[in-house]
User: What shape does this take?
Amino acid sequence: MLMDWQFQKDKREARDCRERLKARRTDLAALQQPLKEAKLPVIVLVEGWGAAGKGSVIHSLIRELDPRFFKVRSVGMPTAEEQRWPFLKRHFETIPEEGKILFLDSGWMDETVRERMRRDLSDQEYQRRLESIRVFERQLAAGGYLLVKLFLHISQETQEQRLEKLAEDKDTAWRVGENDRKQNKNYDKALEAFEEYLTATDFPWAPWKIIDGTDAVCSQLDAADWLYAQISDALQRRPRPEQPRRAWPLVPIPLLKDVALDKTMEEEDYDKALKRCRKKLAKLHNELYRRQVPVVIVYEGWDAAGKGGNIKRLSSALDPRGCEVLPIASPTPDELHRQYLWRFWTRLPKTGHIAIFDRSWYGRVMVERLEGFCTEDDWKRAYDEINEFERELTDAGTVVVKFWVQIDKDTQLARFQDRQNTPEKRWKITDEDWRNREKWDAYEVAINEMLQKTNTRNAPWHILESVDKRYARIKAMSIVIEALEAAL
Assistant: This one.
């Protein structure tokens, strides 16, 4: 890509480039309404050498656009707090909603190459980082996003001249950073690092466009031409990546029909166990905070299975300043207009904190699947996407504990009737609960498939036998204690 690049020797006619650029800006502005109508979200990633003109290119691209429908974000190196998150979190949080464009002045490439050159990433960590980026970009493209990736390329001599010119003016000297100087001094080494990264992340559905940054106006025209072509093509046919075939480290788990639900616990034993578990969890939570370990606990289960009571007992043992219970309902319009995992990436806990999800991303392969809120391709692809999401969490040191709260059909009916007949409980039962009950068999098929395909070693499922709620509560607390002790 870069190694054999031949820089422009004969400059194109400046006047011609300016006229064509002016016309292309108008063309880009005319695409905004079709883009909005097609609900096509676009991410324009502008990477390249220091002083290659990234800011000027972005400024040129947005010049005629309606500012209500785009954002520009300059991405620096992660802060100390951001470094404690999974690598993808801060990038996933900023993705645009449908019909809008996000322009990024550098991004995950710049961050990764810098860390690689500083030797902050070992060879193994670097390869893992590249895999995270491939996952991120593929999930976005599969979810309907258009990724336009530009790399501005200049020679060592051109970069040196531009850095010196910037440094000479007190109003622009601040734009010359230590990293820019190091790039220029170690140009060949940086060139090799850029080449390696570009080759590893170049895909038919999100290709890199190398732009000669030698002449500012011509590079702006090349960028505008490429962006216009990419959006025009995507409005006709969105390129979707193929889902890779993965061999996940799955652990066998029984079908729901084979789970024995006769587990019980006497009230006296329950009270003693509850007191003991609360004391232990409180101690572990303090240690979690001191050691800065994040925890994600997921609850899924049948309606009226006892999730709420189970969560209440678990959270009662934890410091409320470092624990949050997140009830997940239908997505809001803001959430619905982004890739479906976005609303969970944005809710991840701080290091040392615990997030308890009352329902979760698994709605994709249950209610969204059965109610037709996503396509068959969407929910079939989601098993891998969910496993990838949870692997990103656990690789970053997050403890992930997942519970399926299990009851039988007769128990559910009895609890529904109790709620219906008890005034203070009636708010817990809705028409939707009764409708879902009619689809019990279809849900059981979907749940079994979910458990079988996402029961990985790093994020296994735990089935809570909840006909006896006391038993299920103590079992859940004991599993969390065991998981935290193992992590600490």
